[in-house]
Structures are given as structure tokens and as C-alpha cells.
Amino acid sequence: MMKIAALATLLASASAFAPVAQSPRTSVAQNALIEEAFGISVETGNKCPPLGRWILEDANENGIKWWQNAEIKNGRVAMVATIGYMVQKFGVHMPLYLGPSGSNAFHPESSKDWLLSSTSGVTFSDISHAAPLDTIGMVPAAGWVQILFAAGLFEFAGYKRQWTDNNPIPGNYGYDPLGFTKREGGWDSKELTKLRMMEIKNGRVAMMAMAGWLSNESIPGALPVWHP
């Protein structure tokens, strides 16, 4: 199942670079709604790629906004995932508890490791030495419950700020500790518009990178280029 999902993701990513095919079912107004959506860029000839057009052909304005939010959120997760994947692959481990743990930059090895799960006996040292995909199965069920709960809280907050509060900007969830949106001109400024497009493009690259890396983890040799 993991191999099929990875291959499907690669095919979906590759279709973004295929020539644009117009659907006879798509009206002129719908065409305009799709082509004017933020995120359409020069890489696809300033046109929505065929797969995206097929998905959006019956979508209204809110439907397109939903897909924009989905792309931005998945892109953000993928960008963080690429960092985590490389950190794990390169054996770089951040300080954890500042104590004797195999996943600690100050104490790389120790006979007394911190337990990740007392029931399974998995330690942070075990995690630090495992392959990225192997670590998924090493996380105990209680850990996944905590992860899903935290993700649910983020989704709930994002839904409220995007839909309940009727925020017109996809990906704007009201959290901006660095003050990017507080510059002169706000969301309409050229600088912020450029940064938004850069985020979307980097997110797309990160999603394709993770698809390739995970495919190679599942099927060795599936990605015939250098990778971590």
C-alpha cells in the first residue's frame, strides 16, 4: 500500500508539468475563476495544469479556496518534513531534555537512555539510529494519539480563522510572530505577494521531494538521483 501511494503521488506531481488540456465542461466563467486563483505560475505557462483543472472544473469559489488551503498546509508540512528527514538521515540530533539520551547532541551515547515508551522499551537512542520510515512504527499508540490530537487542534483553529471568521486569504490563520503581514501595504504589497508565491512553490518542491525520497525508501532505486 505504501509503494502504491508513493507511486501515485509521483504521478500526480509529474502531471503538473504536462500540457494543459481544456475541458469542454468548463465554462468561461469557471475558466476565469480557476486561472485567476493565486498560485498559478510561469512553471505551467500561467495556466492551471490538467489534473488541477479536472479537480476544480465543478468547484465554486469556496471550493477553490479549500484546495488552496490544502495545498498550502501540505506544502508547509512537507517543508518541515524535508528538514526532519535530512536531520534523521545525516545523524544530526537536537538536544532533548539536556540529559543522557542517544538523541542528544551533548550526550550522543549513553548506557542510560531516556525511554520513549516504557511499555515497548523503545528509547530515544533507538529512534536516533533508525531509518526515517522505521521510526514511524517505533512510536507507541499513545504517541500517535497525542500527535493526532495536536494536529486536530491546529485544524480546528485553522478552520475557525479561515472559514468561521471568513478570512479571504488562503493560508492566513492569524499566526504571524515574525510580522510578515504587518509591513506597509499588508497582503496587497508586492513583497508579501512575492513571498506568498515563493512559499507555495517551495511547498510544491518539498512535496515532490518527499514523494521521491519515501518512494526510494520503500523501493530502493526508485529515485535515480542523489538524495539524502
Feature tags:
228 residues; 8 helices; 54% helix; disordered N terminus
How are the SSEs ordered, and which strands pair?
Blueprint: H1 2-14, H2 28-35, H3 50-56, H4 61-90, E1 115-117, E2 122-123, H5 124-129, H6 132-138, H7 141-164, H8 190-218
Antiparallel strand pairs: 1-2
In short:
By secondary structure, this protein is mainly α.
Word description of this protein:
The model is unreliable at 1-25 (pLDDT under 50). It contains 8 helices and 2 strands; from the N terminus they run H-H-H-H-E-E-H-H-H-H. It is an all-alpha fold.
* Rounded radius of gyration (Å): 21 Å
Total of helices: 8
- Supply the helix-strand structural class: mainly alpha
Instruction: Walk across the major sheet and give the strand order.
Output: 1-2
**Rough outline:** globular
**Biggest beta-sheet profile:** 2 strands, antiparallel
Strand content: under 5%
Extract low-pLDDT stretches. 1-25
Distance linking N and C termini = 23 Å
Mean of all residue-level pLDDT scores? 79
The helical percent reads: 40-55%
Query: How would you spell out the order of helices and strands?
Result: HHHHEEHHHH
How many beta strands in the DSSP annotation?
Answer: 2
